[in-house]
């Protein structure tokens, strides 16, 4: 199930060059004034930017860890609403990596129209794959059945969000890139000024909708075999609410996608208001809010629009690699930008715009983008500058083959195939024997 999509695997640029090739005009190692008995390592002309593969592989490993262990250790599981945990950095890391990759993929364009067609095709492939894997077609480890009612298929998902961010960033890189020669940081900003205009328009639109749209009362139904259909009324009538039940992100998804096409296991079901076993799932406590069992998509439309900003930030970090060949200059720019993003995000959180992954708030974008920049800088320093590559071979391999790993392991396809071979009864299978899927 491989596909040539930017987010996980190397993208070939339109001139068929390797996206990660570095020119040999890297300045002397003395320009990176870092004391160590290991000499800084300089990639040759035919080598990949290994640090990006390692970063991607590390993110895949982190994703598998939080998916498999997060239910046992809530501290690394997704936050139940406001705040961030280890799991909440996975999606921004992937989006950041997509952006860095795009700077290489569209570095040299022979035809903008051909590049646009390729970007559209790649996005469509990713959307289709995401719809198949996360739309409800596959029924889980303990079920050997498959299929989904089209009226209840989940439209959005992780891969769909990445496809949207990839397409927006790719179109910006193809069509909104200036012809200036880059000789300084200021000239680089001028060359890509329309990228920042797009990011500003997206952010402004998001904030206007999140805090300005009126959210009316709404209702939903839950069907059970014992009691039939039960209707719940959620009373809102507010603007600017960022709680689980009355936010504009959820309202737009219910209006545009339909409530039956949203994710049915929202993270807020693990809050103290909705679970007596919080931060784990559990029975509703007495007096639980009416929205506790309502569908909500953490990869919804408005939040996915805001997620494209993370991708555009990663694209800017990739531009720094393209235009500046000195290690020290690259690292200084990355670290400065990462620090500013991190401080801005924490300040926004302090003044009331809370870190929130389901809503993908601006503070969350800034903090996670800053963290992505710091982590990428650290990996780049260790792997591409000082040459500690053997220690990261496994992560590098995972990064190169990230999409197949995600499809087969994170989406449980391998386990479903193994589960399909059993002795007399479906419960008698290898997975049950070793304790997976019980």
Name some characteristics of this structure:
single chain; two-stranded antiparallel ribbon; disordered N terminus; 48% helix; two-stranded antiparallel sheet; mainly alpha; 6% strand; 6 strands; 438 residues; globular
Question: Would you spell out the secondary-structure blueprint of this structure?
Answer:
Blueprint: H1 50-69, H2 90-105, H3 112-134, H4 158-175, H5 185-191, H6 193-212, E1 214-215, E2 218-224, E3 228-234, E4 238-239, H7 248-256, H8 301-323, H9 327-350, H10 362-385, H11 393-400, H12 402-410, H13 413-419, E5 422-423, E6 425-429, H14 430-433
Antiparallel strand pairs: 1-4, 2-3, 5-6
Question: How would you characterize the overall build of this protein?
Answer:
By secondary structure, this protein is mainly alpha-helical. The chain has one domain (50-417). Helices cover 48% and strands 6% of the residues. It contains 14 helices and six strands. The chain has a two-stranded antiparallel ribbon. A two-stranded antiparallel ribbon has the order 2-3. Strands 5-6 form a two-stranded antiparallel ribbon. The chain starts with 49 loop residues before the first helix and ends in a 5-residue tail after the last helix. Residues 1-46 have low confidence and may be disordered.
């Amino acid at each position: 199930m491989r596909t040539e999509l930017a987010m996980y695997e190397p993208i070939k640029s339109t001139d068929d060059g390797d996206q990660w090739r570095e020119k040999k005009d890297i300045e002397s190692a003395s320009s990176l004034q870092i004391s160590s008995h290991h000499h800084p390592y300089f990639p040759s002309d035919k080598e990949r930017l290994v640090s990006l593969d390692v970063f991607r592989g590390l993110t895949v490993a982190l994703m598998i860890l939080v998916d498999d262990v997060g239910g046992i250790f809530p501290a690394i599981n997704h936050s139940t609403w406001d705040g961030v945990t280890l799991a909440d950095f996975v999606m921004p890391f992937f989006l950041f990596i997509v952006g860095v990759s795009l700077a290489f993929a569209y570095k040299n364009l022979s035809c903008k129209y051909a590049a646009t067609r390729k970007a559209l095709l790649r996005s469509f492939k990713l959307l289709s794959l995401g719809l198949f894997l996360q739309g409800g077609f596959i029924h889980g480890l303990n079920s050997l059945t498959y299929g989904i009612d089209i009226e209840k298929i989940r439209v959005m998902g992780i891969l769909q969000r990445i496809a949207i961010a990839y397409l927006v960033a790719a179109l910006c890189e193809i069509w909104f890139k200036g012809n200036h020669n880059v000789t300084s940081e200021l000239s680089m900003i001028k060359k890509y000024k329309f990228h920042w205009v797009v990011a500003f328009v997206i952010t402004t639109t998001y904030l206007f909708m999140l805090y300005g749209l009126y959210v009316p009362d709404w209702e939903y139904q839950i069907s059970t075999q014992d009691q039939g259909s039960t209707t719940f009324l959620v009373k809102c009538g507010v603007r600017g609410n960022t709680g689980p039940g009355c936010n504009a992100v959820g309202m737009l998804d219910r209006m545009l996608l339909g409530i039956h096409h949203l994710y049915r296991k929202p993270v807020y079901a693990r809050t103290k208001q909705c679970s007596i076993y919080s931060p784990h799932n559990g029975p509703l406590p007495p007096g639980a809010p009416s929205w506790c069992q309502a569908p909500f998509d953490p990869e919804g439309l408005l939040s996915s629009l805001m997620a494209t900003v993370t991708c555009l930030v990663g694209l800017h970090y990739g531009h720094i690699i393209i235009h500046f060949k000195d290690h020290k200059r690259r690292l200084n720019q990355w670290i400065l930008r990462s620090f500013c993003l991190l401080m801005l995000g924490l300040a926004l959180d302090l003044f009331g715009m809370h870190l929130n992954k389901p809503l993908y708030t601006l503070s969350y974008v800034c903090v996670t983008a800053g963290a992505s920049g710091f982590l990428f800088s650290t990996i780049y320093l260790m792997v591409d500058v000082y040459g500690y590559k053997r220690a990261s071979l496994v992560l590098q391999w995972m990064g190169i083959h990230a999409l197949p790993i995600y499809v087969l392991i994170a989406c449980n396809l391998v386990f479903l195939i193994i589960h399909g071979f059993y002795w007399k009864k479906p419960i008698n299978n290898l997975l049950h024997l070793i304790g997976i899927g019980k």
